[in-house]
Amino acid sequence: MSQAFNLLDLLLAPSVEKDGGYSHEEISQKERELRILFPDVLRSYYAAYGKCKYITQNCNNQYEPIKLQDVFIPDAEFFTTDKDYLVFYQCAESVIYCGIKLSELHLVDPPVYLCAWSDPNWYFENDSLSNFLVCKALVQIAVEGRLPYWAFVEEGPWQLTDYLTLWKLSDEIKESTHHPAWTMFWKNDTLYVFESALGDDENEVLGVHLASFYKERIEEALSCQMHERRLPSYSTNVMG
Q1: For each of the chain's 240 residues, which pLDDT tens digit applies?
Q2: Do the beta carbons of residue 169 and residue 226 sit within 8 Å?
C-alpha cells in the first residue's frame, strides 16, 4: 500500500522525521474501540504519517488529519442526519468534517465525503481516499510553510500559464474531486501549489506557495525571469 503514498515519501525523503507514525498495536486498539476495521489506505497512512511533524494539526483554516485517538463515529448529538461515517479529517476553523461511509470501509481505497456545520447532509468530496490524503497533505505542507524553506508569490498580473512557462511545470498532481481549489506540481525537489480563483477563468491565480527542504531550489525559482518580466511581489524565508 506504500505505492499510494509515493509522492509523500519522495517529498519528505530528506527528513528522518518523516516516518513518525502510529504503531500497529495503536491502530488496532483504535479499531477495537470503534468496532470497525480501517481501510488499508487509512491504516497505512496512520502508520507512516500519523505523527509526522510536517502533516499535523492546528492549521490556519486548512484541512488537517484528526489524531488517531480522536477519530470517531458520530453519536446522536452530531449535527448530521446520517451518523454512519468514520470521521478522520477536518477543517477546524470552518467546522468541516471528512469521513468514509461505514458501509464502504471494506474497500481498499474508498471515496471520501464531507459535511459542514450549517448543513445536516454529507456530500461527495473525492473518489479516492489515497488521493485525498496525499493532496490535502501537499496543500497543508505548502500553504502552512511546513518545510524548512518556503515562498509565497502574491496575486498579481501573472496567470497560471505564465508560471507554468516560467518554471517549466507540466506534470500536474491532480485531485480526484469535482471542484479542485488547488493546482499542484512537484519538480526539482520543490512543491508548487497554486490557489485557484474558482471562477470562470481557470487561468486566474490568487497566489503561489513554494516549499522545499533545499534553500537553493527556492532561490532558483524566485530568481527566474520570463521575457524580462519579474515575478509579482513575494515573501520568503530564503532571500531578502
Answers
A1: 456 799 999 899 888 666 679 999 999 999 999 999 999 999 999 999 999 989 877 777 889 999 999 999 999 999 999 999 999 999 988 899 999 999 999 999 999 999 999 899 999 999 999 999 999 999 999 999 999 999 999 998 999 999 999 999 999 999 988 888 899 999 999 999 999 876 667 789 999 999 999 999 999 999 988 777 889 999 999 965
A2: no
CA–CA separation, 23 and 211 (whole Å): 29
Shared domain for 106 and 167, answered yes or no, is: no
What does the alpha-carbon distance between residue 47 and residue 238 come to, in Å, rounded to a whole number? 33
* Shared-domain flag, residues 97 and 152: no
What are 36's three cell numbers? 470497525
Instruction: Mark whether 12 and 121 lie in a shared domain.
Output: yes
Domain-ending residue, one of 136, 168, 197: 136
Alpha helices in 173-228 (DSSP H): 215-223
Contacts of 78 (CB under 8 A, 6+ apart): none
Burial 223-236 (b: 16+ CB within 10 A, else e): eeeeeeeebbebeb
- Helix or strand run (H / E) with residue 150: strand 149-154
Assigned C-alpha cell, 191? 512543491
For 122, the domain range is 2-136
Is residue 83 in some structural domain? yes
30 and 115 inside one domain: yes
pTM exceeding the 0.70 threshold for the entire prediction: yes
CATH of the domain at 97: 3.40.1580.10
